User: Which sequence fits this backbone?
C-alpha cells in the first residue's frame, strides 16, 4: 500500500482524485421501509414475485361475457344474454359463465370463470333478467389479463436505480413495503481550532472567537452528496484530545473529515495523529485554494483533511470529496451542473497550480451569461453566497480575457444567475426593496466602490448615497432621501449638538469607511464648516478623535456607541431609533439607484424600477422620504 | 365564492389551474435548527446582528505592528522592533503596541490595540527579544477588519432563499443555530376502494384485491414537490367512514388528496361528502388522462380528487397539484425539466381534449434524442417506469408525425434517457446481464413483438428466442442457449415424459402467449410431432387442454403448476429448479441479442456487446450455455 503514498511537495490534482478513489467509503446495504425509500438507490435487482394484476380484471363497467356469444351483434341486431350475477371490485365472483350468459361487472373486478371479454355498459341495455348487447366483443376485449402489467419472475427494477415516485409506484404494485438500498456513507466531521464556537452559543470576540462555519457547511454538503453527516465536538490543539476524537469518528464512520482551523499547530497535531494511528497517503495538492489537503486512512475509516477557510474547505470538498461520497452512495454525478458564459472582466493568473476561481454569474439584457471572479479572500464567508460556482483555471493560464468563454462548475445544478446584480451603499430601505424582488444579489461595497464597479460593466445597478466625485454615465431608476447625523447614547448624556462638538470637545467618534456615502456627506458638511470657520478641512478632521478609522457597516458606528465604546457615531436617524439611541440630525442625503445604460431593458432591472416607483417602505423608516 | 364554481361538463385545463391557485395551501412559517435547514426556504430576511469577523483579525502568521513603524524597511535596510508579547487564535491580546513595538501573532488571532498591520513571518527574523522586519507594511495589510466579511445590520439572506450548504455557511458565521423557514404544506392522502391492500400485507387475488399504488406514489410526489405527506387509512364506499376520514384529514392538513379507486360508487361517495361538508369548485377537466378530477374545499383545507389509475393520478398530480405545493412551500419550478426530441414514430390523436401522452426517450447513435409514446393503458403501473415524461398534445392536434420535434416534460429534472432500450424475450440470464449495464431499459414484450418493434426502429436491440418467421435485418451481438420443456409438480406425479403426454392424456397444460419464443419452439416441436404421426398440427393442439390460452410471464406456467392449478407448464429448466419443480426436457433453443444496424455504434449497445462477450452468468443457471 505504500506505493499509494505521495509525499512530493505538491501533487497533481489527478493524483489526489486517485488517492480518494482508492479509499473505501461504501457502507453495507440496508433495508428501508417503502415510505422512506424515495431518493435511495436500489442495492440489488427487484424481480416481481407476483403477477400484476393478480387476476383477469375488467377495465370498464359493463357485462362479463364469452366473446363468441356476441359474434355478429350490432345496433341493428343485438344479442340477448341471461344475467346470472353481479361482481364488484374487491369481491370474489360467485358464478361462472355458461353459454349465452352474462354477469354485471365493475371496473377493477375479477372476471368470472369462463368469461373472456367485457361489453361496456354504454353498449347494452337491461331487459328484466336479461341484458341486450349491441356490439360484438372479441376474447380479451376490456380485460386486463393477469400478469399483463408485470408478470411474476420479470425483472422489475435494476440495481442502482435511484428511487423516484414512479419506481415507488411499481414497488407498491408488487406489494413491497421494504426495499434493499445502498447504505448512505456516514461522514464524521471534526472541526479543529480553539477559537471555534458553535452557532447559538455565546461568542467572545475579545478572545478572537469565531463561529464554526465549516461544520454545518460541510455537513450540508455531505447531505447534498447523499451521505449522512455526523458532527463531533471541536478539537483543540491537544494531541490526546484530537487522537481520541478522530479515532472515535473513525470507529463510527466511513470517512472522517477534519476542518475548521487555519492554525498551523492544529494541522500539525492532526498530521501526527493520522501518521501514528493510521496512514497518510498524501498531503499537499497543487490547487488553489486548498493546498494543505491531507488524504489517508484512520482505523477502518477513510480520512480527508480539508483546509480551514470556509470557501477553501467547501471548494475542496465539492471538487474532491463529494464525488467519492456520491460514488459510495451509488448516486450519479448531478446533471447540468455547468454554466457557460463570457468573462465580464479580464483576470490575471500566475499561480503555477490549478486555480478553482469562485465566480459569480450575471446576465446582460440579451440574457447572455457573464462571469466575474469573486475574490474576497478565502477567509470571507460571504464569498460562499456571492459566488455561483467555480471556474477551473489551468496552471499554465496567464489570464482570462474579457469576453473569453469559460465554464462555471455550479455549486449545485439548480443554481441560477441572480435576476439583478446590485452594488453600492447599504441601506435599510434598500434591504426591504430587495425583499420584494425575485432573486436579487446585492454587494454592500459602498457608494464610491459601487460606482467604480458599475463603470466596469459587471453589475446592473449601483446604489449611490451622498455627493459623488466620479462622473459615470448611468440611468437613474429612482431613489429616496435619508436623514443622517450623529448617533449618541440614549438621552444624549454629553449634550452633543452637532459636528462642532466633535471638533471642539474631546469626544470619541466612530466614522464610516471611505467608500460610504455617509462619509462623503460628512466630509462635505465638514468642508462647509471649515469654510465658515476660515479653517482648513484637515485642521478640523485632525481634531476629531477617531475620524480616520472607518467601519464596515452602516450600523457599525451606532453599535459601537450602544456598546459604550464611543460617545458619538456617524449614522442614520433610522439606525438610532432601531437601536434605542438618540439622534442628532446634521443633514439629509439623496440615495439614488443608478443603472448601467446597457442593462435598463433587463427584466430584473425593470422589476427594480417598478418596485422603486411603487414601494411604501419609506413610511415605516424614520427620516426617510421618497425622492 | 360561488363564482369560482365551474360545473360545465369538462373545463379547460387553465381553469383547473386557476381553481387550484385560488386554494390556500400555504402553512404557517416555522423555525428549524440549522442542522435541518438544508433545502428549506427562508420565510423572512436574515440581517446580520453581529460583525464577521467580530474583531480585527490577523490573516497570516507573523508580527502585529504599527504600519508607520515599518516605513522604508526592505531587505537591505530592515527595521528592528521590540517584541513585547504573543497572541494566538482564541486568546485575548494582553498588551497594546507602542511605538517601535511588535507582538508575535497567529493567523486568526485578535490584533492587539493600536496595531494596524501584520508582517508575514517569512519577511522577519528573530533577534533575541527583538524582531527584524525586512519589508514595509501599510495600515490594514494582512488584517481582516471587523465587519469586513459581514457587517452587523447588513442584509445577509433574502426571504425565499432556498438554503444550500453555502447559505448555511453564512448563517453559521452569523451564529444562527435556528432559522425561520416556510412551512412545508401538509398533504393528506386518502386512498379509496374496497379492493385496495397496503403493500406488505397479504393479497387475496381471488377477491380482486390489488396493492394500493397511489398512496405511496403520490406521497413520494408530494415530498419531491416540497410537501409533507400524511397517509390515511383506506376508505371504502361507506359514506360515514369516508366523511369521517376526509374531515379528519382536512382538519390536520393543508390539502387533502383522494385517489385510488376507479369505482364509480366510491367517487360518488366522495363527491357527496365534499358537496355536503365543503364546497366543490370544479369537477371534470378536459385532459386525458384525468378527466374525473375534483377540486374543492373541505373544512379549512383544500381538496383535490385525483383519478384512480396510477399513471393518471401521478400525471394529474404533477401537472396540476405539484406546482401548487411548490408555490405554497416557496420552492421555484424545477429547472431543465424538459427534453426536446424527435418523434420516433407517427402517433395519431383525435381526442378533442388536452392529451398528456406518456413518452419514453431513446438516443440514436449520434446521441440525438428520439421520443416514443408509452401507451400501455392507464391501468398499467409499468407505464410509470417505462416512460420518462409526458408530451402535452393540443386538443386540435390530429397526429404527431415521425421526425416531428416535441418537448417532453420530464418526470423529474434528473431524468436521463436510458443508455440502452431493449425489447423482446424475457429471460433470467438477460436479467443478470442487464444488471451489469449502466442504465438499461428492457420491455418484456416477447420475441415476436420485439422483432416487430425493432423493425420500427424505436428500440436499440431485440432479444429473440426460438424460431422466428419475420425477416428483419439486424446485427447479431451474441447470445446463449437455454433448455426448455415441461415443468411438472415436484417428483413428476403424473409421470409426464414429453409432449405426447399432453396430447394423448387429459392433463391440464399452461402455455405461453404467442409472442413468446418458448411458444414458437413448442409450436415447432409439435409440428415435427405432427409430421411423425402423419397428423395435422391443429389436430394435436386441439387435443392439448389449455393450449390456446397464453400467459404473460416466462415463469407463469411453472407458477400455475406450483400453485396446483395445472399438471404441466411450458418453461425452462432454470425456472423449474428455481421453483422446486420437476423438469421434463423437450429441446434447446437459441436466444440471440439482435441490434438495429443503425445503433451498433451507440455506446450503450457497445457496452451490451462487450458484456455479452464476457459474462459468466450462464454458469449459475441450469440448462444455460453461451452460444
Assistant:
Amino acid at each position: 500500500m505504500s506505493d499509494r503514498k505521495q509525499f512530493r511537495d505538491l501533487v497533481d490534482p489527478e493524483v489526489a482524485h486517485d488517492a480518494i478513489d482508492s479509499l473505501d467509503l461504501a457502507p453495507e446495504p440496508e433495508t428501508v421501509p417503502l415510505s422512506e425509500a424515495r431518493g435511495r438507490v436500489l442495492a440489488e435487482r427487484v424481480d416481481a414475485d407476483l403477477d400484476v394484476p393478480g387476476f383477469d380484471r375488467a377495465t370498464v363497467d359493463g357485462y362479463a361475457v364469452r366473446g363468441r356469444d356476441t359474434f355478429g351483434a350490432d345496433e341493428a341486431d343485438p344479442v340477448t344474454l341471461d344475467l346470472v350475477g353481479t361482481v364488484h371490485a374487491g369481491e370474489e365472483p360467485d358464478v361462472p359463465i355458461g353459454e349465452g350468459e352474462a354477469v354485471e361487472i365493475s371496473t377493477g373486478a375479477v372476471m368470472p370463470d369462463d368469461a373472456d371479454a367485457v361489453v361496456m355498459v354504454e353498449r347494452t341495455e337491461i331487459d328484466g333478467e336479461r341484458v341486450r348487447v349491441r356490439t360484438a366483443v372479441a376474447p380479451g376485449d376490456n380485460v386486463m389479463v393477469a400478469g399483463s402489467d408485470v408478470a411474476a419472475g420479470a425483472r422489475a427494477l435494476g440495481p442502482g436505480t435511484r428511487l423516484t415516485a414512479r419506481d415507488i409506484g411499481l414497488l407498491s404494485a408488487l406489494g413491497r413495503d421494504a426495499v434493499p438500498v445502498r447504505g448512505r456513507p456516514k461522514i464524521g466531521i471534526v472541526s479543529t481550532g480553539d477559537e471555534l464556537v458553535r452557532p447559538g452559543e455565546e461568542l467572545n470576540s475579545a478572545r478572537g472567537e469565531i463561529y464554526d462555519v465549516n461544520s454545518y457547511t460541510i455537513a450540508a454538503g455531505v447531505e447534498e452528496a447523499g451521505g449522512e453527516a455526523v458532527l463531533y465536538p471541536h478539537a483543540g490543539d491537544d494531541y490526546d484530545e484530537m487522537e481520541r476524537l478522530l479515532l472515535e469518528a473513525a470507529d463510527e464512520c466511513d470517512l472522517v473529515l477534519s476542518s475548521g482551523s487555519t492554525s498551523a499547530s492544529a494541522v500539525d497535531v492532526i498530521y501526527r495523529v493520522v501518521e501514528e494511528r493510521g496512514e497518510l497517503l498524501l498531503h499537499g495538492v497543487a490547487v488553489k485554494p486548498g493546498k494543505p489537503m491531507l488524504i489517508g486512512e484512520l482505523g477502518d475509516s477513510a480520512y480527508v483533511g480539508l483546509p480551514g477557510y470556509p470557501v477553501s474547505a467547501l471548494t475542496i470538498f465539492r471538487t474532491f470529496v463529494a464525488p467519492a461520497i456520491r460514488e459510495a452512495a451509488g448516486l450519479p454525478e448531478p446533471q447540468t451542473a455547468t454554466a457557460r458564459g463570457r468573462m465580464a472582466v479580464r483576470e490575471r493568473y500566475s499561480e503555477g497550480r490549478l486555480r478553482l476561481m469562485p465566480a459569480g454569474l450575471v446576465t446582460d439584457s440579451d440574457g447572455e451569461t457573464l462571469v466575474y471572479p469573486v475574490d474576497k479572500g478565502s477567509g470571507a464567508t460571504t464569498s460562499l453566497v456571492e459566488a455561483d460556482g467555480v471556474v477551473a483555471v489551468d496552471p499554465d493560464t496567464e489570464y482570462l480575457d474579457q469576453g473569453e468563454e469559460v465554464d462555471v462548475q455550479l455549486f449545485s445544478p439548480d443554481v441560477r444567475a441572480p435576476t439583478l446584480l446590485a452594488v453600492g451603499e447599504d441601506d435599510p430601505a434598500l434591504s426591504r426593496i430587495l425583499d420584494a424582488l425575485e432573486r436579487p444579489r446585492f454587494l454592500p461595497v459602498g457608494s464610491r466602490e459601487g460606482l467604480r464597479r458599475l463603470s466596469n460593466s459587471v453589475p446592473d445597478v449601483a446604489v449611490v448615497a451622498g455627493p459623488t466625485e466620479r462622473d459615470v454615465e448611468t440611468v437613474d431608476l429612482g431613489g429616496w432621501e435619508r436623514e443622517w447625523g450623529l448617533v449618541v447614547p440614549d438621552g444624549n448624556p454629553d449634550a452633543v449638538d452637532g459636528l462642532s462638538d466633535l471638533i471642539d470637545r474631546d469626544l470619541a467618534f466612530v466614522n464610516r469607511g471611505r467608500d460610504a456615502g455617509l462619509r462623503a456627506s460628512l466630509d462635505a458638511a465638514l468642508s462647509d464648516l471649515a469654510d465658515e470657520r476660515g479653517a482648513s478641512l484637515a485642521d478640523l478632521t485632525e481634531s476629531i478623535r477617531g475620524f480616520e478609522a472607518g467601519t464596515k457597516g452602516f450600523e457599525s458606528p451606532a453599535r459601537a456607541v450602544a456598546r459604550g465604546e464611543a460617545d458619538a457615531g456617524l449614522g442614520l436617524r433610522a439606525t438610532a431609533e432601531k437601536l434605542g439611541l438618540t439622534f442628532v440630525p446634521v443633514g439629509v442625503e439623496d440615495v439614488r439607484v443608478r443603472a448601467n445604460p446597457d442593462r435598463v431593458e433587463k427584466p430584473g432591472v425593470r422589476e427594480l424600477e417598478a418596485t422603486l416607483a411603487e414601494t411604501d417602505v419609506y413610511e415605516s423608516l424614520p427620516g426617510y422620504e421618497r425622492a
Notes: Residues 278 and 298 of chain A are 4 Å apart (CA to CA).
